[in-house]
Amino acid sequence: MKKKTVLILGAGFGGLELAARLSDDLADEVHVILIDHNDGFTFGFSKLDVLFANHTPEEVRIPYAELTRPGVEFRQEHITSIDPATRRVATDQSDYQTDILVIALGADYEPEATPGFSEDGHDFYTVDGAARLRDRLTEFTGGTIVLGILSVPFKCPPAPYEALLLLHAHLVERGIRDAATIKVISPMPSPIPVSPETSESLITAMAERGIIYRPDTKIRSLDPNQHLVHTDTDTVPYDLFIGIPKHRVPGVIDASGLTAGGSDGWIAVDPATLATKHAGVYAIGDCADAPVPRAGVYAEDAARTVAAHIAAQLHGTPFTAKYSGRGVCYIEFGDGQVGKVEADFLSGPKPTAPFIGPSTDLADEKAEFANTRRHRWFSRSEAER
Ligand SMILES: Cc1cc2nc3c(=O)[nH]c(=O)nc-3n(C[C@H](O)[C@H](O)[C@H](O)COP(=O)(O)OP(=O)(O)OC[C@H]3O[C@@H](n4cnc5c(N)ncnc54)[C@H](O)[C@@H]3O)c2cc1C
């Protein structure tokens, strides 16, 4: 039987998980081509290690050259156009016509959506941004630090609060915490609305550390000359502004027409299967308009669903599994303490997200989470299948 080609665009959390699943379950039936313009994968949470744990960008990057999964071919190319109706994709090096197309290109940022932010703001949502902010913090000796969430949705809803708690610990360690005021401004009513327990724990942790939390407040712009944040009700002075930039789909998705019918410019998908309206075309992870937060663990769960859907289609069997939007998020509280929220968005009548309080055991569990992914995605051998 001739193998079907599965073209996966984007080798991030979702793309890597899908490639691994197809390699495990369908290596004899599909040829997987995995495309990404980068030469390696970096976990989202590793950006916090660049910022606060003295890790270099090279240390946290896992090179795609390590990917040795049977049936999976990695190509480092930049995707320049996608035609979902014909399943044709062009890159800077080649053209593809595929049987099955999976778009896993993640989310890009739009810092210019907030006037003044590109000129006078820092971010830690890219590896380069985290490295620049780390250098800026080295020079910081006191003053007001404002962290602003500039738009919703954004990747990993706990990440801004993790950064604040780690920032507090960092300034304490340097003996300059008393010289700094730390504020966070968010348009959301609480840190993690789906999990009141997690929100309460984060709000308490911030209050205990003297971090001023201002929910329900939209930031309109920054004044780079006077170092002022303009919110919808007032102005807030700052010495250092850190922003979570507005997120959007990568430009190549925008140009493909795939966002038609999706809310706020994300790709419309069937939430049960992650299929788009085009035959044989799926979208998973941050770029898809599925009713879950933007986080790697939900991209991973979406990849599992799509792998099962592809298998059912190939074998002509009914598809019984349904995307559950389930995932475990680890939350840094500083001083080596990590909490955990186990969310399930779609399998029950309403989302559930119980919280487990911070401990060093959970810090070990988080490290193990990263190790298992690295092993499963990059090098798990046939003998282990
Ligand atoms: C600070 C921070 C902390 C985080 N912590 C966590 C956490 O603890 N747990 C968690 O689950 N999630 C966390 N996240 C979120 C997580 O990183 C993302 O949600 C996740 O990576 C999304 O997976 P994805 O597959 O959709 O996209 P990505 O992992 O972003 O992968 C998309 C890939 O597409 C590639 N790409 C894009 N455009 C092109 C193109 N034109 N051509 C070729 N390649 C292209 C990119 O290079 C990228 O590799 C965190 C994020 C941040 C910023």
Automatic annotation (TrEMBL):
Keyword Oxidoreductase found = yes
Keywords per UniProt: Oxidoreductase
Keyword NADP listed: no
Coiled-coil intervals in this record? none
Class of the enzyme per the UniProt entry, highest EC level: oxidoreductase
The EC number of this protein is 1.8.2.3
- What is the name attached to this protein's record? Sulfide dehydrogenase [flavocytochrome c] flavoprotein chain
What organism is recorded for this protein? Mycolicibacterium chlorophenolicum
The gene name on file is fccB_2
